[in-house]
Amino acid sequence: MSAAPAAPAPLAAASGSVLLLWVAVPYICLAVFAVGHVWRYRQDQFGWTSRTTQLLEHRWLRWGSPLFHLGAFMVIAGHVVGLAVPASWTEAAGADEHTYHTTAVWAGSVAGVAMVAGLGMLCARRLLTRRIRLGTDRSDKVLFPLLSATVLLGITATAAHNVFGAGYDYRSTVSVWFRGLFTLQPQPEAIAGAPLLFQLHALSACLLFAVWPFTRLVHVWSAPVGYLVRPYVVYRRRAAAPGRTAGPARRDRHPV
């Protein structure tokens, strides 16, 4: 692992381009993310869905969807630990830098491969299946390339610097910048000195958050938790079939 970079310069010392890229753009994207969800929920509740195409094609979807979602959950969990949790916390929990680095690289590689494989299948079925391709709207045409770019940039950055390279401690730069945004103490110089691949990955992620409310990604906030507590629906026959007596009412769990 390479040595940690020097401490970032104060916000006032940052150049205009650095402030634009690493302060203005992230906050604009986060504002669009928050306001866009409110607008979408109030204006387009019927469109608040993943718009499944399972009935049009299911062979690719059967493998692509589980791989993509499993990989995405693992990647998100890894980003939460790597970006939101300071290194001092993981060290206090007993995970030194070498242990964390080794675990992050191997777990991240498995998650990245699963996510790329699943996303590749989902993109391929959308391009190769005519009925699905014709149903692709403008939001999908923006979402899929942007999502693919974000995923590939993240995997390439990890592979280039932390798998085949000398190693790069992003928790002392990118993570510091990320946490500073949410504590309203931005430190743009922390990420301004990071490798280009990490910068591009961060910028593409910001843009992904900006388009999130206007795409099918909104369905992640609609996990069907309420299904577990829905009441039973009682089905009764209106009349007995000829020669048969009406049986007891059936009580099956179905969505209302």
TrEMBL record:
<feature type="transmembrane region" description="Helical">
    <location>
        <begin position="20"/>
        <end position="39"/>
    </location>
</feature>
<dbReference type="InterPro" id="IPR036197">
    <property type="entry name" value="NarG-like_sf"/>
</dbReference>
<protein>
    <submittedName>
        <fullName>Respiratory nitrate reductase subunit gamma</fullName>
    </submittedName>
</protein>
<keyword id="KW-1003">Cell membrane</keyword>
<dbReference type="Pfam" id="PF02665">
    <property type="entry name" value="Nitrate_red_gam"/>
</dbReference>
<dbReference type="InterPro" id="IPR003816">
    <property type="entry name" value="Nitrate_red_gam"/>
</dbReference>
<dbReference type="InterPro" id="IPR023234">
    <property type="entry name" value="NarG-like_domain"/>
</dbReference>
<keyword id="KW-0408">Iron</keyword>
<keyword id="KW-0472">Membrane</keyword>
<feature type="transmembrane region" description="Helical">
    <location>
        <begin position="190"/>
        <end position="212"/>
    </location>
</feature>
<keyword id="KW-0813">Transport</keyword>
<feature type="domain" description="NarG-like">
    <location>
        <begin position="20"/>
        <end position="238"/>
    </location>
</feature>
<feature type="transmembrane region" description="Helical">
    <location>
        <begin position="142"/>
        <end position="164"/>
    </location>
</feature>
<keyword id="KW-0560">Oxidoreductase</keyword>
<feature type="transmembrane region" description="Helical">
    <location>
        <begin position="60"/>
        <end position="84"/>
    </location>
</feature>
<keyword id="KW-0534">Nitrate assimilation</keyword>
<keyword id="KW-0249">Electron transport</keyword>
<keyword id="KW-0349">Heme</keyword>
<feature type="transmembrane region" description="Helical">
    <location>
        <begin position="104"/>
        <end position="122"/>
    </location>
</feature>
<keyword id="KW-1133">Transmembrane helix</keyword>
<dbReference type="InterPro" id="IPR051936">
    <property type="entry name" value="Heme-iron_electron_transfer"/>
</dbReference>
<keyword id="KW-0479">Metal-binding</keyword>
<keyword id="KW-0812">Transmembrane</keyword>
